[in-house]
Amino acid sequence: MDKEVLKTLRVVPIQLNLPLLVLLLIILLPGCAPVISKSLRAQVDLSLHFSEVFQNPKAYEGEIVIWGGEVIKTINQKDGTTLVEVLQSPLNRMERPKVTKPSGGRFLILFREYLDSFIFGEGTRITVAGEILGERLRPLGEMEYRYPLILSKEIYLWEYHFYLPSQYYPWGHFYFPWWWYFP
User: Fold this and answer.
1) pTM for the full model?
2) Is residue 182 part of a domain?
3) How far is it, in rounded angstroms, from Cα 122 to Cα 84?
4) N or C terminus of the chain: which is more exposed, having fewer CB within 10 Å?
């Protein structure tokens, strides 16, 4: 660039943009925050993976974990508690279950209160923080499946997002009045 062109360009000092930058950070950063509280996340052993617990849940009783996945089934029990069966998925940095990664297996979440099975229905994505209680054997098809069992301390339901495919019009993007379609 020519020196004359550079002289005509005005450089705005960073001090003028600082309040705008701070405001922008205040607005955008909470959207990237994890969904489980900081105090509970401090109790979690991040080196403990689902696959390790899945092999021997009794060895990890009392440990606090953060897991997530898709709800398979919600069972409201006679004693007022709720048992939720979940297909585990790895979590991303915001603790949201990833749907493109393979699952490590299934686990059960025990809630000490009644949960509506419509809200916690099949396919709902959740993130849960809880204490490992051990394991529970339940039938899965014609076999007995060993589920790791956790007691829920915090749970987060993720919104269901769906994307409609764009409409394909083989005749082009022409829109006709409604009366043209009826004789």
Assistant:
1) 0.70
2) no
3) 10
4) C
